[in-house]
Amino acid sequence: MGFAAKYRKEFPQKLIDFMTEGGSFEGFGAKVNTSRTALYKWLDKYPKFKEAYDCGVLKAQAYYENLKRAKTSGQVIKNFDSKLCDAGLLGFTLRTRFHKTYGIKDEVDHKSSDGSMKVIFVNPSQAEDEK
Predict the structure, then answer these.
(1) What is the pLDDT of residues 92-117, one digit of tens each?
(2) First vs last C-alpha separation in the chain
(3) Are residues 27 and 71 in the same domain?
């Protein structure tokens, strides 16, 4: 049995709403009963859906940042019990799901070929692979 959902004009707002609560793009596909392939085709075909996706990614990141902040500061957030949540798990979610912002940047090399300084971040696991 395949996924059969057809694109509907309300999907951009539904995607934003879903991701605002921390949902993933692929999770939205499950919610609207469509495939990952269809989701990515919709990004190319429907500019409003692409814009909603871009907005949704930022909203999802903000959602997890707020949870992490609540956990570390004891702040109260509706429907979130910071005592039941692990700060490490929230950090892991941020590092993996939003790796462009929170990826591992452990080692710093300073290189200067023309007098200007360049900073190169190296992931330790990648450094091991290159040896």
Answers:
(1) 777 877 777 777 654 455 555 565 55
(2) 47
(3) yes
